[in-house]
């Protein structure tokens, strides 16, 4: 069935290192994806999006890569900081959004 | 700050009761979607409203209903509350269409006892 899923439920990195969070999707017709960051007790915060006519998009310290051949997304965070500790979701947006379970990123000082 | 506000932030209800949650969308956004997020899981789509009409629904029973008002604000109503309805309820606003950014409010934490 259609789904958006994440490879790893948890990720722990050292402060200053780069983080990579992965996501797989199964609907090859999907053409718009969003990464969200969710801190404890808060709503998801928009980080970056990418459309299927692109394979890479960069923001401030973040880069999203889209590989349509293997239906895979990744979020790269450069120079990870303690404030980056949160749960990260990828979402496949059609008229609604479909989320995976999320990856919890922990940044060690 | 996304400009999407939800009220109340926390709520405790008894099983069998009814609840109404409210959402004000970001300025200019005429599409509002509601999501239920159980602890440790990703948000699950409940339904979406566009121009005051329901415009898509997820796998939730009819006791979950909603409204959208002319100013694009929205309500989520849940009747006959069950213990499993305890969750964070999220509202997201966007412009219509598939490839448009969606921004979330901070959510309403509902606890059913």
What order do the helices and strands come in, and which of them pair?
The complex is a heterodimer of chains A (109) and B (113).
Chain A: E1 4-6, E2 10-14, E3 19-25, E4 32-38, E5 45-51, E6 56-58, E7 62-67, E8 72-77, E9 86-93, E10 97-99, E11 103-108
Parallel strand pairs in A: 2-11
Antiparallel strand pairs in A: 1-3, 3-8, 4-5, 4-9, 6-7, 7-8, 9-10, 9-11
Chain B: E1 5-7, E2 10-13, E3 19-24, E4 31-37, E5 44-50, E6 53-57, E7 64-68, E8 74-78, E9 87-94, E10 102-104, E11 108-112
Parallel strand pairs in B: 2-11
Antiparallel strand pairs in B: 1-3, 3-8, 4-5, 4-9, 5-6, 7-8, 9-10, 9-11
Taking pLDDT < 50 over at least 5 consecutive residues as the criterion, the unreliable ranges of chain A are none
Q: Name the structural class of chain B.
A: mainly beta
Helix fraction bin of chain B: under 10%
Q: Strand pairing plus helix content of chain A: what structural class?
A: mainly beta
The whole-number mean of residue pLDDT values of chain B reads: 93
Our estimate of the beta-strand percent of chain A is over 45%
Into which percent range does the helicity of residues of chain A fall? under 10%
Number of strands of chain A: 11
Query: What's the Cα radius of gyration of chain A?
Result: 13 Å
Given the C-alpha coordinates, what overall shape of chain A results? globular
Number of distinct beta strands of chain B? 11
How would you describe this structure to a colleague?
The complex is a heterodimer of chains A (109) and B (113). Chain A is an all-beta fold and 109 residues long. Helices cover 0% and strands 56% of the residues of chain A. The radius of gyration of chain A is 13 Å and the shape is globular. The termini of chain A are far apart. In chain B, strands 2, 4, 5, 6, 9, 10 and 11 form a 7-stranded mixed sheet that branches. Chains A and B meet through strand 4, strand 5 and strand 10 of A and strand 5, strand 9 and strand 10 of B.
């Amino acid at each position: 069935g259609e789904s958006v899923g994440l490879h790893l439920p948890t990720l722990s990195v050292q402060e200053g290192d780069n983080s990579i969070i992965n996501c797989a999707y199964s609907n090859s017709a999907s053409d718009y994806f969003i990464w969200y960051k969710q801190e404890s007790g808060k709503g998801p915060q928009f980080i970056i999006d990418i459309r299927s006519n692109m394979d890479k998009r960069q923001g401030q310290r973040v880069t999203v890569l889209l590989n349509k051949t293997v239906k895979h997304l990744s979020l790269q965070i450069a120079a990870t900081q303690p404030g980056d500790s949160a749960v990260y979701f990828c979402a496949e947006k059609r008229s609604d959004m479909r989320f995976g379970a999320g990856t919890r990123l922990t940044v060690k000082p | 700050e996304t400009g999407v506000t939800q009220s109340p932030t926390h709520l405790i209800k008894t099983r069998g009761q009814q609840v109404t949650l409210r959402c004000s969308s970001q300025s200019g956004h005429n599409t509002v979607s509601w999501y239920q997020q159980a602890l440790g899981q990703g948000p699950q789509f409940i339904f979406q409203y566009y121009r005051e009409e329901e415009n898509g629904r997820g796998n939730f029973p009819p006791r979950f209903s909603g409204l959208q008002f002319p100013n694009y604000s929205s309500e989520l109503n849940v009747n006959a509350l069950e213990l499993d309805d305890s969750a964070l309820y999220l509202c997201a606003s966007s412009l219509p269409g598939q490839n448009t950014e969606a921004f979330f409010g901070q959510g309403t934490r509902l606890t059913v006892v």
